[in-house]
Amino acid sequence: MIQPLQHLIVILLVWCLCQLLPRRAGVHVLSVAGLIAVAIFAPVAAGFIVLTTLEACIMVVCFGRLDRSSNWRKYGPYLLLANLFFVDLHYWLLAMPVVTLAISFSTIRIFMTAKQLLNSRKKIPLSDVYWVFPAAFFLPAIVIGPVFSGTLLRDQNRAGAAEEIGLRDYRMVLQGIVLVILLSPAVGNLGTTLQQDVLDIFFVDWPFLFLQLFAAFWGQSLIAEHTSRFFGYRLPVNFDRPWKARTIKEFWNRWHRSMAQFVLQYIFLPLNLKGVPPKIATVGAFVFMGLWHNLTLGYFVWGLCHGLLLAYSGDVSESRAKRNTTRVFVWTMVICLSWFANYGPVS
Questions:
Q1: Cβ-contact 283, 300 below 8 angstroms
Q2: H runs (alpha helix) in the chain
Q3: Rounded distance, CA 150 to CA 287, Å?
Q4: Is residue 302 within 8 Å of residue 340, measured between CB atoms?
Q5: What burial letters (b/e) apply to 6-44, b meaning 16+ CB within 10 Å?
Q6: Claim: this prediction has a pTM higher than 0.70
Q7: pLDDT tens for each residue of 265-282
Q8: For residues 268 and 116, what is the distance between their CA atoms, to the nearest angstrom?
């Protein structure tokens, strides 16, 4: 498994190389470097992602010849999402444990790219099919996301205008490293130290485990987002101060935003357009998100509960006391569900 510091060092080495090349070459060098990095640290995963990439390219070429009203063109790319099951079923398929680094995020990005290409009203040129590959192996995002379409990289590459790197970008990369390398393990160790009896599991261990996961996730996202700007590319922002969330809806507007937007656009909306009631479509979308994390009963319950909370939660109350009560309830549920999915008896 590639460690965050190793990941950052590889990114910086590629950045030094790209200083000698035209700006538009950066995305291609990053993609090849991402493939090499995954092949070194998780060779089986690299091979599987390459096969998924080829599968998507064949789908785009074949389905792209069909009329835009064709169900194969509309829904055929969803077959790619079945590849996510390899992460959880690989031991039974291969009869040995392997590192599945990058498969979950890469498969989503590959699917998004294929789907957006097939949504095009124009004939799909072969040069556009290529962008499935950068979506799969974009180096800054291989470890933990965010999720985005390769068409985002294509459009920014063709625009040719590089992102201006500011002091804030360097500061955010440093903040990401501090969160991942120092704060995340320190919080986890502190929670273990403070845990003394059964009651402390709820009052001490659960919040600390959640903070440990948050620090690692947020830190790695910051590294991906801001090192991408070194190469002139802007990725979706994964976290927008989630601690300010007062409701479950606001929480998902701030937490893992790229994945929340993915399930809204590619799971919820198709279900709703097919006649599924909005509340049921919301629950179905978040059950998918839970099983995307892990094919376990724990994450099924996690997705089901988040979906139900989103579907049946009301608007923000005008009463300050009720707002505070709602905020406490939301964060208690978020922390408890996170513990149940990751560390509970059916995790």
A1: no
A2: 4-18, 26-41, 43-63, 71-75, 86-94, 103-118, 126-129, 132-137, 150-159, 167-177, 184-194, 198-200, 206-230, 248-254, 257-263, 269-273, 278-293, 297-312, 320-343
A3: 25
A4: yes
A5: ebbebbeebbeebeeeeeeebbbbbbebbbebbbebbeb
A6: yes
A7: 999 999 999 999 999 999
A8: 16
